[in-house]
Amino acid sequence: MTLLVLVFLAAGCAPKPPATVFQNSTIDALLDGNYDGELTFGELKKHGDFGLGTFDAVDGEMLALEGEFYQMRGDGSVSRVPDHVKTPFSAVVFYQPTGHEFITGPVDYTGLQKRLDGHRTMEGHAYAFLVDGRFTSVKVRSVGKQKPPYPPLADVVKTQSVWELADVEGTLVGFWFPPSMKHVNVPGYHFHFITKDRKRGGHVLGVTVDRVKTSRQSLDAIHIALPAQPPATRAVSDRESELHKVEK
Ligand SMILES: [Zn+2]
Fold it and tell me: Are 216 and 128 in contact (CB under 8 A)?
């Protein structure tokens, strides 16, 4: 009996798992053309089951959902990511949503972001968001594999492929990072999308919501895995507009 009580007490006192974003490298290093993957997806999976990122030589957009990692390439193909493949930049969490909301559209991307804003009660924290359901339209893009010497990301996206998916079921996976983190990760909202049948997807440029369920997780820490070699840097006069070109 005594033993049982002790077990219950121990369980009650156990600290909650930390709500930590794990990422390798920084968005600034990626913008500067540091596309050589340093971290394997096998390693990345130890740090989260939900998130987004890219691949060695920016060979497509990455989305992780429920522990499955997907590669959404510039040719429109979607496939599972083998553990040996490497990433130059990804961000993941162990997704533990704290609440949800149903939204009935039509609601555009700005309207959706305003609804999600209402759930960001800790202004200084980052947030993970999941939006699952039916969309009237989703505009996604992906980029093709690059060859060294790598061009900056702002040049890579000039050759991106863009697709408009109409009347589609699927899931948005993404983050909101505070403006103060703009050299670390993309400030504001950043979503990747994958269809329910896991056959299409990419980096989100726009959506119109039909009927969806949203959920979120407040994140109070970031763990950044640093590369062995320092990333190459360029002198950039206006990184904010460069980031806007790349992400929006
Ligand atoms: Zn993206």
Answer: yes
